[in-house]
Amino acid sequence: MAMIKAGLEGNVKAYEAVAKYAGQSGQTEADEEEQRIRTDRAKRARDQEVGDESGAEENIQTFLKAMNPTQDELDSLFDDEEEEEVNAEEAEETGEV
User: Fold this and answer.
1) Alpha helices, H only, the chain
2) pTM for the full model?
3) Among 16, 73, 82, 86, which residue carries the largest CB count within 10 Å?
4) CA distance 79 to 14
5) Quick check: is 24 in a domain?
6) Domain count of the chain?
7) SS3 of 27, please?
């Protein structure tokens, strides 16, 4: 309570200490997001140099997910193929390639 009073009276250090413990920061959300991105990039670069196993685990999970697609993913896959066949037939009929 004394620090809050001191901060209200103009003590900048007391104000900064109270703000810090209250969860306030001088950084904006954009600054924090940029810091998260930089940290993530640094971790990935380190993992590539060292050969981190967690990246391998992520690749395995992605592979397993691809081996077990959802019905929506299958439907969209075949919809794209049908559109390509129709476009190819139209191009063939008009003589355009």
Assistant:
1) 2-8, 12-21, 29-50, 53-67, 71-94
2) 0.31
3) 16
4) 64
5) yes
6) 1
7) coil
Q: Does 6 map to a domain?
A: yes
pLDDT tens digits for range 39-50? 999 988 888 877
pLDDT in tens, 27-83: 777 888 899 999 999 988 888 877 755 556 677 777 777 777 778 877 887 775 555
Burial of 64 (C-beta count, 10 Å sphere; 0-12/13-18/19+): exposed
Contacts of 46 (CB under 8 A, 6+ apart): 52
Question: Does 72 reside within a domain?
Answer: no
What does the block give as tokens for 65? 């997910």
Q: 4, 17 in Cβ contact below 8 A?
A: no
Contact 7, 18 (CB under 8 A): yes
